[in-house]
Amino acid sequence: MPTIDVSEHLYRQLQSAADGEDLNAAMWKMVGRYQRGNTPGD
Asked: Which of 5, 27, 29, 39 has the greatest count of CB atoms below 10 A from its CB?
């Protein structure tokens, strides 16, 4: 899997959004929500 470098500020925002959940799992949920919200016709 590729590595993505983000700023410390963005990393802290991601950790906060994960709310104690596994960060990787939280990010996949975010991707799913983004795709559902940005796909016309779904």
From this structure: 27
